[in-house]
Amino acid sequence: MIEAINNKMNSTKKLKILNFYSDWCPPCHTFMPNFLAAEQTYWEYFDFIVVNVVKNMQLAWVFWVRSTPTIIILDGDLVVYNQSWVPNWADLKKVMLTLTS
């Protein structure tokens, strides 16, 4: 795996949610409050990782991120959810609930 971002990529939690964003991206800023709210609710199950694609191009390339925002959920090393552009919060929440039950 790529070196840790705030040491979260190498944490012991099996489930990780990566939010690939850009500072100049209005949809990224629109989605961020949902992402932060999800972190407050599901922090026990997931590591929530915010990835600036400009500063972490290598990680963006590993996951073939082509637009922002892109949300990727990893179960171990397996990608179980990948949504580009404005993520559908309802769909993302369903996936999160499925993975934590």
Describe what you observe in this structure:
The chain is 35% helix and 27% strand. The chain is built from three helices and four strands. A four-stranded mixed beta sheet has the order 2-1-3-4. β1 (15-21), α1 and β2 (46-52) form a beta-alpha-beta unit. The model has no long low-confidence stretch (mean pLDDT 83).
Q: What is the fold's blueprint, element by element?
A:
Blueprint: E1 15-21, H1 26-42, E2 46-52, H2 57-62, E3 70-75, E4 78-84, H3 89-100
- Percentage of residues in helical conformation: 25-40%
Which stretches are low in confidence, meaning pLDDT under 50 for 5 or more residues running? none
Counting DSSP E segments of at least 2 residues, the number of strands comes to 4
Mean model confidence by pLDDT:
83
The topology string of helices and strands comes to EHEHEEH
- Shape annotation: globular
Percent of residues in beta strands: 25-35%
Question: What strand order characterises the main sheet?
Answer: 2-1-3-4
Structural class computed from helices and strand pairing: alpha+beta
Number of distinct helices:
3
Distance between the termini: 26 Å
Largest sheet, if any? Answer: 4 strands, mixed
Rg computed from alpha carbons, rounded to a whole number of angstroms: 12 Å
